[in-house]
């Protein structure tokens, strides 16, 4: 085999390897940019419901509410004792081992009677800590006023408070605690998912392109045109004939489908903390940027002037000495950001100017005002 043939074979192998590497890189990029439908959207009827209740925590070691100041705690304690057959209305209650609290919980979708759920307990009075306390039986109600769960149990807190006459140390929030599996579901929310004729899929981040891609992915999986995007946040899915009476199986088949999420170009700025988040699709038109601040520093260094030794006419005087420094950032240069630069190039260009987050916020706002920033700026 001649040298030319060897070179030709080597060239073709190199081209083929390069093609394979590019193809592999594109596939990896596409796969990494895709998300499952279950991660970017919610299905109709599969949702939590919020519960709330009011109760009393007992067993506190002198860190509860002041009965004289917290009237609601006093009246609640008297009511509980009277229901238990104890007449405390005519007695002078003086205890600091009781605290009034609000209880919040999430009722999971399709929670059945007897299922246990977690609760969060928060003091609403003058209690200093809920450590060591026990929540008395408390009904938890939904937005419709019906009782859906009942909670009771010892409270676990993540913080503590200790101190004396001169100093107090507090870590975490000792007036908020949690009771794991402390509430029992007593009422179920009726929703017949398997008999639905159509299902609405709600996007967590509404977007026209993403909604259309979800509909296309579902139609490819199920066949036909059963899914259609009705608006940026909703995909309407008619249950195909083969899934009638078994909607759960259909949702299981489509929730794992990968979809490439499209996001708008956006720059999010938190003025309070100086945090800047720049989206991947942010682009900047050709623009020149210069950044600099004028700093004037004045330092006073007074000196003492004394007369010569054994002088009868001289006096000791304080002589002012002022030093002025001016920094006009003359070492900063004009930086050019070319048109269509990527996110990485934007960051590199701004870092090259030697600016901090605060100055970077002003620069981004100025670029937007100049019409060169092809993205929306959202201030938190």
TrEMBL record:
Main location: other
InterPro entries in the cross-refs: Flag_FlgI (IPR001782)
One of the GO BP terms on file: bacterial-type flagellum-dependent cell motility
The keyword Signal is annotated on this UniProt entry: yes
Assigned keywords, A-Z: Bacterial flagellum, Cell projection, Cilium, Flagellum, Periplasm, Signal
GO cellular component: bacterial-type flagellum basal body, distal rod, P ring; outer membrane-bounded periplasmic space
Function: Assembles around the rod to form the L-ring and probably protects the motor/basal body from shearing forces during rotation.
PANTHER family tied to this protein: FLAGELLAR P-RING PERIPLASMIC PROTEIN FLGI (PTHR30381), FLAGELLAR P-RING PROTEIN (PTHR30381:SF0)
The protein's name: Flagellar P-ring protein
């Amino acid at each position: 085999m001649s040298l030319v043939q060897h070179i030709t074979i080597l060239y073709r192998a190199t081209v083929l390897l390069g093609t394979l590497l590019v193809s592999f890189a594109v596939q990896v990029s596409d796969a990494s940019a895709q998300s499952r439908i279950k991660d970017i959207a919610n299905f109709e009827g599969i949702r939590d419901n919020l519960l709330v209740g009011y109760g009393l925590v007992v067993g506190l070691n002198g860190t509860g509410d002041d009965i004289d100041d917290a009237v609601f705690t006093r009246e609640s304690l008297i009511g509980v004792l009277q229901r238990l057959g104890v007449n405390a209305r005519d007695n002078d209650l003086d205890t600091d081992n009781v605290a009034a609290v609000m209880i919040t919980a999430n009722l999971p979708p399709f929670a059945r009677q007897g299922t246990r759920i977690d609760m969060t307990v928060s003091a609403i009075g003058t209690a200093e800590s809920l450590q060591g306390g026990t929540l008395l039986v408390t009904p938890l109600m939904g937005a419709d006023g019906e009782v859906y769960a009942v909670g009771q149990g010892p409270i676990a807190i993540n913080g503590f408070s200790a101190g004396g006459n001169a100093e107090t140390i507090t870590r975490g929030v000792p007036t908020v605690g949690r009771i794991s599996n402390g509430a029992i579901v007593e009422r179920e929310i009726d929703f017949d998912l398997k008999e639905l004729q159509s299902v609405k899929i709600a996007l967590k981040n509404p977007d026209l392109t993403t909604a259309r891609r979800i509909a296309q992915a579902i139609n490819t999986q199920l066949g036909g045109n059963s899914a259609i995007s009705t608006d940026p946040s909703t995909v309407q899915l008619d249950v195909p004939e083969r899934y009638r009476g078994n909607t759960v199986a259909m949702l299981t088949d489509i929730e794992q489908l990968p979809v490439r999420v499209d996001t708008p170009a956006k720059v999010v700025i938190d003025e309070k903390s100086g945090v800047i988040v720049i989206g991947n699709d942010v682009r900047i038109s050709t623009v020149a940027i210069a950044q600099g601040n004028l700093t004037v520093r004045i330092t006073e260094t007074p000196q003492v002037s004394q007369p010569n030794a054994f002088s009868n006419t001289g006096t000791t005087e304080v002589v002012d000495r002022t030093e002025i420094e001016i920094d006009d950032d003359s070492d900063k240069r004009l930086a050019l950001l070319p048109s269509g630069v990527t996110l990485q190039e934007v960051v590199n260009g701004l870092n090259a100017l030697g600016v901090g987050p605060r100055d970077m916020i002003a620069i981004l706002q100025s670029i937007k005002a100049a019409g060169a920033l092809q993205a929306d700026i959202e201030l938190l």
